[in-house]
Amino acid sequence: MSKIKAFLKRKDIEFSAKRYGIDAMSAMAQGLFASLLIGTIISTLGEQIGVEALVKVGDFAKGATGYAMAIAIGHALKCPPLVLFSLAAVGGAANDLGGAGGPLAVLVIAIVAAECGKAVSKETKIDILVTPFVTILVGVLLSMWLAPAIGKVGTVAGSAIMWATELQPFFMGILVSVIVGIVLTLPISSAAVCSVLGLTGLAGGAAVAGCCAQMVGFAVLSFRENRWGGLVAQGLGTSMLQMGNIVKNPRIWIPATLASAVTGPIATCVFHLEMNGEAVASGMGTCGLVGQIGVYTGWVNDVAAGTKAAITAFDWLGLILICFILPGVLTWAFGLFFRKIGWIKENDLKLDL
């Protein structure tokens, strides 16, 4: 047993929830952003302004989705170069064979292939043959065997959440908004979770609401401590910056979370806000305005498909209220109350910017 532990340590193979559930998932979300999501944005821009070259650029970026995710995961797992580059083939196979649940298949299979590749890396004199051979063989065979089933799990789970949200938009609007918002602020990738589940439609709209409530909420709530730098860093960056302060005083999390519980059902029941763009955008909130661009992309897709007559002023009103105005106003109001009763004290939300 001690020899096995020593081998794993030497190979930097660490079986832990943090490495696989946080590091790998967060990296996968970055791979998704750098391929599928940015490709969708570029394609949509090209379609809207009539520049065919941009549409082609976006299509090429979207076509690299599986490869980008797998390589990003390998980077997070600290793979040697030959393993890292070999994961491109694994990601392509897992994503294609995983169908709609491809991201979940890529996450699971790329992790296994990466660790197998790391285990044999530089153990022979013909490493340039052995390492890519093992990595690709393990990854592609697993993709052929398991990717459809793994992808189905993610699709079924996401479909169940979306079905429940259609059936009970009020209660599920609260639940999805609060949970996805909390995940966004935790050191876990909400974008990856939404992508794995394929969270679109009303559920995707509730997810956007929850993420925006956390990001805009913390940006406004901490304005007196962090001023404009904090407003931009959290409002357009990530509310995860507050995790250190949350550990010290968990009560600072309550205002933004309460705001998400309000904006979620308003999004689903009043404005019927749907995310019919890429599922990964559901978990991005106001980060680079990706969530809002995703909603807009969905509107454009729906109009093109004939399922939506036109983008209306009511659509824009809902998007602005849910994503920016209500999160800021509600969190500020809740925050005033909690500051008054002493649950939030001066500099509890201070960031080192």
3D architecture notes:
The chain has 353 residues and is mostly helical. It folds into 2 domains: 2-154, no CATH class; 168-340, no CATH class. Helix content is 77%, strand content 0%. α4 packs across α5 (81-97), α8 (169-185) crosses α9 and α13 packs antiparallel against α15. The longest helix is centred in the middle third of the chain and has 41 residues, at 127-167.
Mean pLDDT: 93
In total, the number of strands is 0
Low-pLDDT stretches:
none
Helical segment count: 15
- Structural class designation: mainly alpha
Terminal Cα span: 46 Å
User: What is the N-to-C order of secondary-structure elements (H for helix, E for strand)?
Assistant: HHHHHHHHHHHHHHH
Principal-axis shape equals globular
Helix content: over 70%
**Total domain modules:** 2
Major sheet: none
In short:
The protein is mostly helical.
Furnish the topology, listing elements before pairings.
Elements: H1 2-10, H2 17-49, H3 52-63, H4 65-76, H5 81-97, H6 102-120, H7 127-167, H8 169-185, H9 190-197, H10 201-221, H11 223-237, H12 243-248, H13 254-270, H14 290-305, H15 313-340
Helix pairs in contact: 2-3, 2-4, 2-9, 2-14, 4-5, 4-6, 5-6, 5-7, 6-7, 7-8, 7-10, 8-9, 8-10, 8-13, 10-11, 10-13, 10-15, 13-15
Key words describing this protein structure:
single chain, 353 residues, mainly alpha, 2 domains, 15 helices, 0% strand, globular
